[in-house]
Amino acid sequence: MLRVSQRFQCIKFLRRLGLFCRSSCLPLLSLTRTPRGGHCEWMAACCDPFFEYCERSVWIVGMLCFFLVLFGISIVVYTFYTYMVPFLYKTESGPMFSFYFIYGHYLLINISFHYMKGVYTDPGRVPKFTSNRLTEKQVKLGWKMCYKCDSPKPPRAHHCRICGRCVLKMDHHCPWMFNCVGQYNHRHFMLFVIYMCLGTAYVVHCSWTRVVVHMYMYRGYLKSIVDTIGLNGGLERAKSLPLSSQTNEGFLVVIVFFVCFGVTLALLVLGGWNVYLVTRAETAIEFYTNQRDKRDYKKQGKKFTNPYNNGARRNCALFLGINQRRSFIRHVLFPSTHPPIEDGMYWQRCDGASNNNGHTTVDA
């Protein structure tokens, strides 16, 4: 038995050694087939086994973040229904309470829909090719070799080490969604960030008066600001129904308020940054690669232009998948499962170059 065990461990060690050698040599081999392989690509290929080990561990972090998001949303919804809805029902007029109630459910539906679609929608797979070399036509269309897959990849596609494959128009790997953000779920990610920001701001707006009264914060500068703006009425209503310190009401409402306040600020920055990238027709990865290309072009006395930037309005329409048959109200303000206009393999360019390989692009 001891000999069998030792033999099994030896075979297992040899298998692991073979996989390590393959993962180490494949990036270097693929760079020899790439028409453009600078020193940065070669350095990344040499350090690739170490990067792969570190980034594979992010998979566990992503799973924890996914359950953390579900837990956080559940706590906020429970606290709002249990403690804030009765308060609004008793202190607000009938039409105002109806507005709060309908608007809150509208945000909750959009948040839940876009989050689940972002998690379970495949961001976009690059098809397998029989040849592992680039053709002349692919080179002209901007295709490159993936040094991890050792296979051609279309423009704007990148390899995700965590997912272990190339992703069409990859933006980033989002641990909070436990998925890559790419061509087919980028819209859901963006709308989730926007609706989540509106939802947390909504919770802050509905609970701030009760928190201020509960924590005795209605004094000093805050009191003068509130009195100047004219929000005394809300504080008076909150004083009539204060948070209870004998139960979990006060603790939960205060914690939810400060968590939602911090999340709102963070999502404002994240959402603003993503809106800025969408208007420029760039992903988070392309922003940095384009900055590098701008510096290279400037050294050569040339001007770099993003070939996929068709103007802010056109870029937003392509990103949201809006065309003559789709409206902003129906397909953006309400949940929609419509696919993107572009397929992630061929793109509409603004520089007049042919990038559809004979395919006809859909007019948005």
Write a structural description.
- The chain has 364 residues and is mainly alpha-helical.
- The chain has 13 helices and six strands.
- The protein has a two-stranded antiparallel sheet.
- A hairpin with a 4-residue loop joins strand 5 and strand 6.
- Helix 7 packs across helix 9.
- The longest helix has 34 residues.
- The chain is elongated, with a radius of gyration of 26 Å.
What's this model, at a glance?
Helix 4 packs across helix 10 (249-279), helix 7 packs across helix 9 (232-240) and helix 7 (186-214) runs antiparallel to helix 10 (249-279).
List the total number of helices: 13
Number of E-state strands: 6
User: Which overall shape is indicated by the principal axes computed on the Cα atoms?
Assistant: elongated
Poorly predicted runs of 5 or more residues? 1-8, 26-39, 356-364
What structural class do you assign from the helix and strand content? mainly alpha
Query: What fraction strand?
Result: under 5%
pLDDT average, as an integer? 79
The amount of helix comes to 55-70%
What gyration radius follows from the Cα positions, in whole Å? Answer: 26 Å
The helix-strand sequence is HHHHHHEEEEEEHHHHHHH
Strand order of the largest sheet: 1-2
Q: What is the end-to-end distance? A: 69 Å
**Main sheet: strands, sense, barrel:** 2 strands, antiparallel
